[in-house]
Design goal:
alpha+beta, 182 residues, 6 helices, 47% helix, single chain
Length: 182
């Protein structure tokens, strides 16, 4: 029994002085937070790029409505959505099927715009509030595009998601008065 205790004591001292595996143990503690932070930062950068791309695409599509080209040429909501989708894919490949939603409303005055209901409120996205009314000459129009961004980093869903499904809805809005295009 005494020999076992002595060997155990020597083994414990030797283990306490050993430093060969300490780097591996320290790395094991640091690797998960490091990769989560790295992937989270990359996802935030991708969301920023997607938001900028969406803003560009909405401005480009909104110009068709503002100048009256959409109204006089009979451009449909699907064609405007496709134009936005094509512009989105200029910078990065983004799937627009079931992820891009359009809302185009006309108003008689800028004051009326304040009462417009937003499809994204309190963590809910209501597709029933979406319209397509590009308006007539000199009417005020609000073009709004919603893009459902599916989160890549699971730990950041709780932080970055703004709808109950764990996704982030990116919104781009453009408001203008139609030109007297007749």
């Amino acid at each position: 029994m005494f020999a076992f205790a002595k060997r155990w004591s020597v083994a414990r001292r030797r283990f306490g002085k050993a430093r060969r595996g300490s780097v591996a143990v320290e790395f094991a503690f640091v690797v998960l937070p490091f990769f989560l932070l790295t992937f989270g930062t990359a996802e935030i950068a991708l969301i920023g790029l997607a938001q900028s791309s969406l803003n560009f695409a909405v401005a480009d599509a909104g110009r068709l409505i503002r100048t009256g080209q959409a109204q006089t040429q009979g451009v449909t909501e699907a064609e405007i959505s496709q134009l936005i989708c094509d512009r989105l894919n200029n910078f990065m490949v983004m799937n627009c099927i079931d992820t891009l939603y359009m809302d185009v409303d006309r108003f008689d005055s800028f004051v009326d715009v304040r009462g417009q209901q937003n499809a994204l409120e309190n963590g809910n996205f209501d597709e029933g509030l979406l319209n397509y009314e590009p308006g007539d000459p000199s009417q005020i129009v609000v073009v709004r595009a919603y893009y459902r961004w599916r989160m890549i980093t699971p730990m950041f869903e709780r932080i970055l998601a703004n709808v109950g499904t764990g996704d982030r809805i990116l919104v781009s809005t453009m408001m203008f008065r139609n030109e007297p295009y007749e």
